[in-house]
């Protein structure tokens, strides 16, 4: 099959879909990508971020350095679809389209092999562990990445609910700042007939959860947008003679930008401290799965828009950031760049839904835009 035939990349995307791996475990995915892209003659292929890959095209050290990134991990979701390329791994599936993002980058590799950059260098990053927010950090801190100083960094995400192939972007904040808070409440167990002899955190946990709701501003068009979503809660044991002495509340926080996230975090922790004051119950807090907001640089945004219009693609200037997080935001904290979206179809199932599947019609046009 000719390398330029789009069917080659559709077949590879579906192969990745059949064999998904969760964040940090993408060893088989890494091997499959390496075997597939080796035919496209990169200057080098280097392991990065433990389970990721870094490809180089062009060898001119005097010109600009461009980095283009795709994520490769799957989600712990049981697939509901029954098509021929359905996931063969129980409880794991590509429900965010990272198999498609990886296929786009392999198609781009083929285009770069046909027409390598004359000036400068292009690096393609197949990044692991986007879903848990650890992959971008692993890549950026990898010694293999240390010598690369990109002038521009780019990434994309497919967008169910938007017309197929439309390009969606905006300067400034593009995706939300997101992080999750874990609060542990430590009291004292007692007989459930004598709760006054213990310290049951149940009501304090309830007050804290309700108080977090009062800090919300769910309007995505507002600069003060803040979403606090209860994710998980646990209390005591299933032993009905014991009044609980331990509990946990887990929340996910979302804001339009990093500054708002800092302010919301301080406000929430102050609320928790005030509620606990005098209760005798101690709390501990920890944050996990933090995603910086993607900060699209105006110059990078302008390049995306002009390239899309030159190719005849429909372009939407988005007015407010998306509410989901993306760990490419860590790249844009340290490097000039931008992320954009490409419409996956107005009737496509939503991201992270068990019946979602990537739209293969996006592979070639997205690669050509890059």
UniProtKB/TrEMBL annotation:
Alphabetically ordered keywords of this record: Hydrolase, Manganese, Metal-binding
Superkingdom of the organism of origin: Bacteria
Peptidase M20 dimerisation domain mapped to chain residues: 180-274
InterPro entries the record matches: Amidohydrolase, Bact_exopeptidase_dim_dom, Peptidase_M20, Peptidase_M20_dimer
Residues in the signal sequence: none
Entry cofactors: Mn(2+)
Entry keyword annotation includes Mitochondrion: no
Co-factor remark: The Mn(2+) ion enhances activity.
Stretches of the chain forming a coiled coil according to its record: none
Pfam families: M20_dimer, Peptidase_M20
A single GO molecular function term of this UniProt record: metal ion binding
Binding site for Mn(2+): 96, 98, 131, 157, 352
This protein's name: Amidohydrolase
